Amino acid sequence: xxxxxxxxxxxxxxxxxxxxxxxxxxxxxxxxxxxxxxxxxxxxxxxxxxxxxxxxxxxxxxxxxxxxxxxxxxxxxxxxxxxxxxxxxxxxxxxxxxxxxxxxxxxxxxxxxxxxxxxxxxxxxxxxxxxxxxxxxxxxxxxxxxxxxxxxxxxxxxxxxxxxxxxxxxxxxxxxxxxxxxxxxxxxxxxxxxxxxxxxxxxxxxxxxxxxxxxxxxxxxxxxxxxxxxxxxxxxxxxxxxxxxxxxxxxxxxxxxxxxxxxxxxxxxxxxxxxxxxxxxxxxxxxxxxxxxxxxxxxxxxxxxxxxxxxxxxxx
Length: 316
Ligand SMILES: O=C(O)CCC(=O)C(=O)O
Hints:
By secondary structure, the protein is an alpha+beta fold. The protein has 8 helices and 16 strands. The strands form 5 sheets. Strands 4, 6, 9, 13, 15 and 16 form a 6-stranded antiparallel beta sheet that branches. The chain has a 3-stranded antiparallel beta sheet with strand order 1-2-3. A 3-stranded antiparallel beta sheet has the order 12-10-14, with no helix packed on it. The structure holds 2-oxoglutaric acid. The site of 2-oxoglutaric acid has 8 residues, from loops.
């Protein structure tokens, strides 16, 4: 049991006298659910109706549904961010202590599965928040954190700061290596969340990601007519770069290292040039679905990602 618990990555379900734990071998896709029965009730950890532990308050869940994101400070420990940054610095080819070596506005690195990245992605706080927003058993734990666009102070345009939503599934045919061909549809096939993991302290001048508040509702309406097949990133870019969302208020994804923003997959966001002095380290992986989202269920119960889409389509 002790050895198994070394690989504990989250609590899947917490009931009065039964705990279900998700166990995963490090750096693999495989995980198992281990059910443990115990004698003493754990009722004080539960929300009254759902049996799910509450990392996110009702107000935060409402904010996620209506604004399209929720900010979780301290979602993973600062020490993990420090360790992760030290690994990334080595691969930038730059000297952390010598700004004259920071010659590019952005360097993209990715697919790091080392311990700090796998641990950051799998804290109990995040797993519980995933359960609350996406539903228990409806998402896959991550073993890496996807791409890190590392942004450096620079007078030059980084060339990648346009408004967009992240696509989620490959085209049936055509060039899958061209990400403009990747698609997104109204049920967000393949993607449960967009996530922003802050691996450095990010203040306003430090190129925080720009977010258009509530733009996920506009995007749901753009996607609805395209049905299951959805639209490609190229199609979406042709929608006058999300002109419908331009009037939305903006928020900047600032925060201390260890902060995570959990965002609706349709949230329109953009990078920006770095005007500060300390390089910005951020990962932006998807949370992938284990079960597809549904917009019409016979039991009428919907998870917050689905609720937001239904509100946008006025089906709620
Ligand atoms: O670097 C950022 O702030 C966001 C980058 C981004 O959204 C992207 O590359 O898709």
